[in-house]
Amino acid sequence: METIFALATARGKAGVAVIRISGALAWEAAGRLAGRLPEPRVAGLRHLRLDGETLDEAVVICFAEGASFTGEEVAELHLHGAMATVTAVLRALSGMEGLRLAEPGEFTRRALENGRLDLAQVEGLSDLIESETESQRKQALAVLSGAVGTMVEGWRAKLVRAAALLEATIDFVDEDVPVDVTPEVIELIDDLRRDLRWEMDRSGAAERIREGFEVAIVGRPNAGKSTLLNMLAGREAAITSEIAGTTRDVIEVRMDLGGLAVTLLDTAGLRETADVVEAIGVERAVQRAQGADLRIFLLDDADVPMIAPKPDDLIVFGKADLRSVDGFAISGKTGEGLDRLIAEVTAILANRAAGAGVMSRERHRAALSRAFDALDSARNEVLRGTERAELAAESLRQALRALEALVGHVDVEHLLDEIFASFCIGK
Amino acid sequence: MKHFDVIVVGGGHAGTEAAHGSARMGAETALVTLRRDAIGVMSCNPAIGGLGKGHLVREIDALDGVMGRAADFAGIQFRLLNRRKGPAVQGPRTQADRKLYREAMQKLTDDQPHLTVIEGEVADLIVTEGKVSGVILADGSQLAAGGIVLTTGTFLNGVIHIGDRQKPGGRIGDQPSVALAARLRDLSLPLGRLKTGTPPRLDGKTIRWDILDSQPGDDDPEMFSFLHDKPFVRQVSCGITHTNEQTHDIIRENLNRSAMYGGHISGVGPRYCPSIEDKVVRFADKNAHQVFLEPEGLDDDTIYPNGVSTSLPEDVQERYIRSIRGLENVRILQPGYAIEYDFVDPRALKPTLELRDLPGLYLAGQINGTTGYEEAAAQGLVAGLNAALCVQSRDPMIFSRTSSYIGVMIDDLVTRGVSEPYRMFTSRAEFRLSLRADNADQRLTGVGLALGCVGEERRRSFSDKMERLSAGKDLLASIVLTPKEAALRGLRVNQDGAKRSAYSLLSFPDIDFSQLAAVIPELGAMDPKIGEQLARDALYAHYIIRQENDIAALKRDEDWVIPDDFDYSALSGLSNELKLKLGRARPQTLAQAGRIDGMTPAALALILARLRQGRRAAIA
Ligand SMILES: Cc1cc2nc3c(=O)[nH]c(=O)nc-3n(C[C@H](O)[C@H](O)[C@H](O)COP(=O)(O)OP(=O)(O)OC[C@H]3O[C@@H](n4cnc5c(N)ncnc54)[C@H](O)[C@@H]3O)c2cc1C
């Protein structure tokens, strides 16, 4: 049975987030991130790393087969609640062979199959199921309504058409079907690849809309970052929460800017340092700042070291109350320039949000990317010639199955409908 | 009253296979049919097999059934369809000599122990205490049995249409079954109506063969039966011709006289087997349709023109047929016709093909809304085996989608019903790459041996083959080449430094066994047939590993059997809509429940929870 994983706690706005991994590869996968694992049922503090990069410091707990919620080998990663961290770890797990994101209700389902729930729990389950069914129904409806529905329907129709063309050459060889369906199939596949790629690119912004943009304030120590943060926070009535940072080096404040969820990050002051402890903090600050959606560079008299602005990033001069400068100046003390800063940040993020796709969940993105990969291999097989038609067809089936996650079931009857509508079959 | 273990009603393709299956299991079996000499009759085209259908025949053969063997005895033109594509989508097909097929089937039937043929019309069923326990023949005599298999094909309330003329008939020259149809209606089985058609038969002596193209059989013919390796009789070619604009004009002008277009037929016909009227109307921009001229036998001049089935009046049939090149002076021996008949909604059946609400009664073949000899025969086998198992108080034999086309078909039928006559296609099998015609024996003969429906001759040849396959596989796995060594031997592989076994080299599309054997001396002693079979397994190995998770998941769900009396209304937490749907469909397993439109994972979990609860209660 495949190993599955998912965020087991509610998404967003939490101090701690738990990712649960269940299945034969659970410990192996956890070990690849955390290194040496603690004994089963003993909590251990570990750095989670992928390709040398630290993702988070987390509490790791392992449960042995037969002694876990699902009855399978389970590992739990208790992360700091930041969404960026959770997303990074989920993505790292998605990239591992033999692992996939759990379907809704799948942990419970496995627990049931493995007899981990007693009779009373089974009976109590119906309430849970009720809410799950309802929320799934709503989610599916939302996904399938309006824009998403039309878009996915369009893809589905193209994919079904491509698959039907190939299947027609397989199942109806002895008939008068057009011999060379290759050009049309390739055209359909290429259309689809383009559409999917475009949507995957836009899904990042979509996820931001759902989960919030990150804006980092960077600057040298004592550049006035904290004053600015407090000022912004104080000005905005719509602050939603203040939570401890994922490390003591980064303070996060969540707020609402022009209807967009935004998390402001106040990073440690950046400077070259010989102090080992400070260097670690600075390193982390740099990473978080680079991973953020937008950076505000707060300058005093010298440049900000160790990090360069990207397009769209804002450069402002602080402590405008103390001196006069050319350029965009603000003062955390007097409030000078604050309105303008807020307006600019809002404008930039709103602009990005306007280009956002509708696929906002990791699950959507995973489905799109599976479909995309399958289309790639279908394309290769089609180009290798009709002798490989069944392999091309198999890849298209996988692409269809991936899209099923978004649109519900695609049936072989749809293929047959398309075949019989297009070709004169029947010798 | 005479007693049997199992009675099979109808000696068509479903019935003979059912009767043989039951008899092979050692059950005393009676085959009751209208005419003994009609056993093995092919109502429509003189051919067996094809894509998907050929797979079914191989699976029947793997379980020691009779269709494949009879087809080999009667085969006069063998072709492996899709020979140029991969083995997963290759399907064996043969033109069959009608007379030889009939004779082969009748001989096999005479020779089968525990099997008695009884001539007669079954007019009624005996039902005692809600269970079917016997049949009453038209002459009033009665037969009793523990299991009854109904395989009456197109005979239930059959009506034949030629143009605007109609007459009752089971097929041309046969009376329909009216009394039995009325009885099934009384039992309030869910009935529907379907139709199908057949082309006129032509006199081959009046065809201008010299001006037509011909299509020969394969040089290296593939047999259906795993027990056979070459044809038994002389091989012949088929002719090929085409319809033309003039043909289409004649048809168009007379559409209102066609039974289907004149509004005389209400039943639904198959889209993949349209009449020539349908083709001309629906694909108006095509100015020619291909017609295969298939001989019906070696010493029979009758020709079956495949591609022009029709329900136009006889005079129009003659005019359009004669407008076709090579058929200018042809004589029609028997006009084409359409037939309409009753079928039972197969959703009323269990996967054993027993009626859910009428224990003891099994249905198989065209009566379940399918079309085709092979589909009929495969269902017959399932029903026959299960009727015997039931009488012997043994566990039923359920075929899974994950291991056979038979399983795919049965599951499609009983979970989703039919909206047009159901025919097998390879695209219906989601695990097509592993369910191949070439490995039907590896998938099913072992199962058949365990059941007891496989005879001694096949047991021996099967275990011998399996031994050689496993020795061959070990040998191929033990020979390991570096990319350099492979290149030195002229084999094209990536120079990536990865060592590969001879087995994995066979998964490369452009390396076949003969090539490998030519450059690796150790393989010289291996039987090329065994080598080629292993190459077919190797070709899909990567894909099959990927599918294994899907297969395992499906199998797990298939193992959760939902009892017939499962009460969905008692499940709190299930939407009313789903309760209704599930109550109506009454899925047999969790896997089937999952395929019902509108199901959610959570609802499945809820059903599963109740099943677990039940299982625990049963153990306690
Ligand atoms: C006109 C026509 C056109 C067709 N066209 C096609 C086609 O294009 N493609 C295709 O794939 N298939 C076609 N078929 C279908 C194919 O012939 C059938 O699917 C197949 O033969 C069904 O097998 P069966 O065993 O279910 O029924 P049948 O072969 O019809 O056998 C039924 C048997 O039951 C017996 N019987 C009936 N009633 C009773 C009774 N009351 N008591 C005792 N015995 C009884 C009959 O004598 C007969 O032997 C066509 C059939 C017909 C008649």
UniProtKB/TrEMBL annotation, chain A:
- The TrmE-type G domain sits at 212-350
The Enzyme Commission number assigned here is: 3.6.-.-
What's a single GO MF annotation on this record?
GTP binding
- Cross-referenced Pfam families: MMR_HSR1, MnmE_helical, TrmE_N
The main location class comes to cytoplasm
Q: How is the cofactor bound?
A: Binds 1 potassium ion per subunit.
- List of residues binding (6S)-5-formyl-5,6,7,8-tetrahydrofolate: 20, 76, 116, 427
> Which SMART domains does the UniProt record give?
AAA
GO cellular component terms, A-Z: cytoplasm
Binding residue positions for GTP: 222-227, 241-247, 266-269
Keyword set, alphabetical order = Coiled coil, Cytoplasm, GTP-binding, Hydrolase, Magnesium, Metal-binding, Nucleotide-binding, Potassium, tRNA processing
List ligand-binding residues for Mg(2+): 226, 247
Coiled-coil segments on the chain, per record: 361-406
One GO biological process from the UniProt record?
tRNA wobble uridine modification
Cite the binding residues for K(+).
Answer: 222, 241, 243, 246
Protein localization: Cytoplasm
Known cofactor(s): K(+)
Q: Which family does it belong to?
A: Belongs to the TRAFAC class TrmE-Era-EngA-EngB-Septin-like GTPase superfamily. TrmE GTPase family.
Function as written in the Swiss-Prot or TrEMBL entry? Exhibits a very high intrinsic GTPase hydrolysis rate. Involved in the addition of a carboxymethylaminomethyl (cmnm) group at the wobble position (U34) of certain tRNAs, forming tRNA-cmnm(5)s(2)U34.
Assembly notes:
Homodimer. Heterotetramer of two MnmE and two MnmG subunits.
Q: What is this protein called?
A: tRNA modification GTPase MnmE
The organism encoding this protein is Paenirhodobacter populi
Taxonomic path: Bacteria, Pseudomonadati, Pseudomonadota, Alphaproteobacteria, Rhodobacterales
Name of encoding gene: mnmE
UniProtKB/TrEMBL annotation, chain B:
Q: Mind telling me which SUPFAM superfamilies this protein's record contains?
A: FAD/NAD(P)-binding domain (SSF51905)
The cross-references to SMART domains, in alphabetical order and at most eight, read: GIDA_assoc_3
Q: Which residues form the tRNA uridine 5-carboxymethylaminomethyl modification enzyme C-terminal subdomain domain?
A: 538-609
What InterPro entries would the database entry show? FAD/NAD-bd_sf, GIDA_C_N, MnmG, MnmG-rel, MnmG-rel_CS, MnmG_C, MnmG_C_subdom, MnmG_C_subdom_sf
Residues holding NAD(+):
269-283
Q: Which UniProt keywords apply?
A: Cytoplasm, FAD, Flavoprotein, NAD, tRNA processing
Please give the cofactor(s) recorded in the UniProt entry for this protein. FAD
What GO terms fall under cellular component here? cytosol
Family annotation (Pfam families)? GIDA, GIDA_C_1st, SAM_GIDA_C
Q: Name the PROSITE patterns on file.
A: GIDA_1 (PS01280), GIDA_2 (PS01281)
- List ligand-binding residues for FAD: 10-15, 122, 177, 366
**Localization per record:** Cytoplasm
Q: Name one GO biological process term.
A: tRNA methylation
Q: Example GO molecular function term?
A: flavin adenine dinucleotide binding
**Major localization listed first in the record, in broad terms:** cytoplasm
State the coiled-coil residue ranges.
none
Instruction: Describe its partners and assembly state.
Output: Homodimer. Heterotetramer of two MnmE and two MnmG subunits.
Similarity remark = Belongs to the MnmG family.
PANTHER family given in the database record? GLUCOSE INHIBITED DIVISION PROTEIN A (PTHR11806), PROTEIN MTO1 HOMOLOG, MITOCHONDRIAL (PTHR11806:SF0)
Q: What does this protein do?
A: NAD-binding protein involved in the addition of a carboxymethylaminomethyl (cmnm) group at the wobble position (U34) of certain tRNAs, forming tRNA-cmnm(5)s(2)U34.
Q: What is this protein called?
A: tRNA uridine 5-carboxymethylaminomethyl modification enzyme MnmG
Gene coding for it: mnmG
